Amino acid sequence: MIKLIFLLTGAQVLRRRWYWLALGGLALILLSASILYDIGSDGVLSVPLDMLAILFVVEGVVQLFFAISKELRIDWLTLLKAFGFLFIAFLIFNIPADNNDVSAVLFGLMFLFDGLFRISAAWVLRGVRWRKHCFTGIVELALSLLIISNWPFHHHIAVPLCFALLLLSIGSNLLLMARQAHLLTDDSSVTALPLFRAAGLRRWHSSRYAHPPFPQDLAAIPLTVYIWTPVGACVVRERYPLINRYIAAVDNNGVVSTGHAALEVGSDIYISHYPLDNIDRDSGNFRAILRSGESNDVAGRFLPSLAEEVADWCAPDKQIIFTRYNRAALENYWRSYRTDSTYNLTARNCSSTMIQALDVAIEGILAQQPFAGLRLFIDPNFWLLGVIRGRAEEMTWTPGLALDYVWLLKRVIEPQSSQLWPLRLWQSLRLRHELWQQKRAPSRSIVK
């Protein structure tokens, strides 16, 4: 989440207001200390957590109304977000009837599954920080056992303790980032911060370019992201919806298709990264080439245009257009990045190359908007955006993850008319009433 806020506000804002990061870090550390003191004094921490749960309930109810207010059809993504918020509220609420045993078990299971995911992804892909990710996963497994077993602490203490330690970690990182942001230069990018350079499976992010401030005016030519999903790029043999969308699909000949991603700005910039020679993606040896180490690096190439790519392969099945972006920064970055065409199926592929270029293009897009950070925090799309980016950087960027990320990013930086939940709730109820009246009108005329 913090990384996305830095990216959308830009280096110039961070450099000028680094002290706000320091104050935020100190506030979180003090809040963590107060929680630890509260736990140590009476072992109960219900009121602050219940207040947090109420906020999740309100957001969940608003999303629920919003999901069923679109032309009397159900918006399944918004409905899923609504139930997600309500489920989180259930986990947080202090419910005396069941002694919070159910929520504690579910909370522990979330730690368990997340820890298993981190360990398995790190072990298979072997990024530069795979040992650290494995250690984090082991810590999560230990916390899950601590919460579920009620030993050596009862879950009334264990859950708030985990929450307090999380706040302490975020606060400490904010203090460190405040110092790093203070040292940024006028034409530097936030990608120069260690927070970005250490992200992903390999340290590919190039920060050796001049990054001018974000322009005030709309660009003359829009920026377009093209996605070839695995299913859209081949005729699949068997359909597995989640695997086919986010990882790969196997065609009738047993060849694995991972899809593709590219970025285009007019006829001057086309970013489409391929291996120089096709990688053998036979399903029998596909697992062996997933590791992100240098042993799997191959020579790569950058295609010159979308027309040539479509002529050699097929047209993309998805595209997202951005009308506001920093073209000068993107041109400077692209001149630096394309000097190295090394390709790696998991660490430096088409999707990661496109996402890094998009990062440069939209960095600082919210710099001139007042209270941008607060608006981001109350936008559920932003939270989903952070989850997708975190998972992609823990694992690897795929065309399916890139598609979801870019689509949500567009919704975040080009929001609806109102993001405040009271107005959204009122608009949803009013729209629902109007549609209900329109639906009833024909039936009344027929009865007459």
Radius of gyration (CA) equals: 24 Å
What's the N-to-C terminus distance?
Answer: 58 Å
Compute the number of structural domains. Answer: 2
Number of strands: 8
The H-and-E topology, N to C, reads as HHHHHHHHHEHEEEEEEHEHHHHHH
| Spatial shape | globular
SS-derived structural category: alpha+beta
Comma- or semicolon-separated keywords:
single chain, 448 residues, alpha+beta, 2 domains, four-stranded antiparallel β-sheet, two-stranded antiparallel ribbon, 17 helices, 7% strand, disordered C terminus
Describe the structure.
The radius of gyration is 24 Å and the shape is globular. With 448 residues, it is α+β, with helices and mostly antiparallel strands. It folds into two domains: 2-46 and 94-182, no CATH class; 210-413, no CATH class. The chain has helices spanning 2-9, 11-16, 18-42, 47-67, 76-92, 101-125, 130-149, 155-182, 194-197, 241-246, 306-312, 327-337, 350-362, 372-377, 380-394, 399-413, 421-447, and strands spanning 223-228, 249-250, 256-257, 260-265, 269-271, 273-275, 300-302, 318-322.
SSE diagram, text form:
Blueprint: H1 2-9, H2 11-16, H3 18-42, H4 47-67, H5 76-92, H6 101-125, H7 130-149, H8 155-182, H9 194-197, E1 223-228, H10 241-246, E2 249-250, E3 256-257, E4 260-265, E5 269-271, E6 273-275, E7 300-302, H11 306-312, E8 318-322, H12 327-337, H13 350-362, H14 372-377, H15 380-394, H16 399-413, H17 421-447
Antiparallel strand pairs: 1-4, 1-8, 2-3, 4-5, 6-7
Helix pairs in contact: 3-8, 4-5, 4-17, 6-7, 7-8, 12-13, 15-16
